Batch of 2 targets.
Target 1
Amino acid sequence: KEYSHKIDSHETVFRVNDFKINKFSGKKITYNLYASPTYKYLKGNYTVLSLCNLPWVYSCQNILHSKKYTNIHMINPRFYEHVHNESGRRKKIPLTGIVAIHIALEMCESVSLYGFTRNVNSDDCFKYWDCGKSTKWYMNRKGDGTFHDFYANTKHLLNILKSNPKRLSLF
């Protein structure tokens, strides 16, 4: 809650996937980075950066080329591949938030991160707008291990923070 005004004071604000605007998050949105399966949440007057990753490439591209959504821009697959390789993945994909951090580091002089965790075994709320599940529960849920590696993503986040101490801050 104490970060809401600080978030809105930034020149550029990235949101990820199915975010919620409320008293904890600020109201500003410049870019929203969506992974392709979450298009059902698309709403608002901001620029959408689209991640068309497997197995949703076909449906993602149909949405990108429809006349309904004129504010969507696809992230270059080579950039996504770079993030995938940089984050040390083999078969599992990086989280959308990790991709957003890499984009922000390419675009911005300094980057402030809100809503990310350093500890996958935390009892903190996983989503700032819904404390129904803890980070520990979310990171250890069954089935996700085949798609995302939350531990590797968190390790990569810590490495990014360590290698960019003057440009990147985590709140």
Target 2
Amino acid sequence: MAELPDEEALLLQLRDTRSRANAFARLVNAYGPMLHRHLLRMLQSSADVDDVLQNTFVKVFRNLDRFRGDSKLSTWLYRIATNEALSWLRSQQRRGRKFVSEGHQEMAQRNLSADPYFDGDAAQLELHRALASLPDKQRAVFIFRYFDNLPYKQISEITGTSEGALKASHHLAVKKIEEKLKAYVQ
């Protein structure tokens, strides 16, 4: 994984038209793997992740001048990636592709088993199947806390949701996942 660059220096380079292209390449190399893992957990299909990640970086590039620096650059990137993933999930659901169905869980299992980025064992696969059964926003909160180890304050900045609502959502997600995994453990 690429080392994360100094955000202030990178932002200065991104805002300078002479260094923007090189700085943006550094941004993609540094933050791309982190966002890819996050999106893979949300979408559970590497083919879909590639499209959403590309859309994310297109939006980032187009909106660089609008980034005010009120939050960390990584928070802003997570927010764009998460919003893109949620939009993609909504568009798939409008097309009749349900992600809480048994069919999606089977598809997620096939995709994860065949995915070159997934090297997990059966327990991890069951966790990802349980994740697939969560509502989109609960899945996102769980992923931010469990996999990305982000504090509620940063998740709040990313999602625009209060910390209290995030804690409640995370608690519900944990309970649902525990129920799904209870059957696997027994």
